[in-house]
Amino acid sequence: MIQISHLAKRYGHVTALGDVSFSIRPGEVLGLIGPNGSGKTTLFECLAGVLPADGGVVLRNGQPLPVHDRSSAFFYLPDGIAPWPQQKVRWVLEFAKGFFEGRPRGPAEAGHYVQTFDLEPLLDARIGELSKGQRKRVLLVLGLLTPAPVLLADEPFDGLDLKQTREIGAALRSFARDGRTLFLSIHQIGDAARFCDRFVLLSGGHVCGEGTLDEITRRAETVRHARTDNLEDAFLALT
Questions:
Q1: Rounded to whole angstroms, how far apart are CA atoms 214 and 198?
Q2: pTM (2 d.p.)
Q3: What is the CA radius of gyration of the chain?
Q4: How far apart are CA 46 and CA 32, in angstroms?
Q5: In this predicted model, what pLDDT tens digit does every residue of 44-103 receive, in sequence order?
């Protein structure tokens, strides 16, 4: 269990995150939902230790998790990056396999990941030559090869078509059932509702809801005093 308590991040007089608190449970797919500018990327960067937070604490099993030890808990996949652009996909995956060999949650399933994410035709392509959707699939496999128990993925479905989104979403859920925790920042609320077990709703740097779909919609109904049937309506009601 990881508990985020009163996390805050400010840029001068602008509050990017204000008193953010929620929990991350083992083996779940947790969706981070919010509009552009709501603080989703800043939250991931603070959790991963990329940005220093201005307040709050991250706890693992009740004990503080300092910034210098965050990599033991989190692996962060930013959106829109193209690491090693001149290297081929095969090299990137072999590098990850070799780097994490022998560590907890080693790369035993690398071949399975390649097959599941349909990377076989891309193995001899250079990272810089891939489309955004193709690169996204490669990076997701790279993240899954890491030993960190929680994978933070920023917009994992961006650049994928409908068929790919459904297939990869189902694959990510299966990996969570095997014990991996996935924390996904998702812009499309329909995708989040389809694949996530629980949700953190973020608006203006503040958490406005946390829980399962049933828990979120029930809270929304108390706010709007009307029946709420889906996550999109619940998000609008709570924000």
A1: 9
A2: 0.91
A3: 18
A4: 14
A5: 999 999 999 999 999 999 999 999 999 889 999 999 888 999 999 999 998 888 887 655
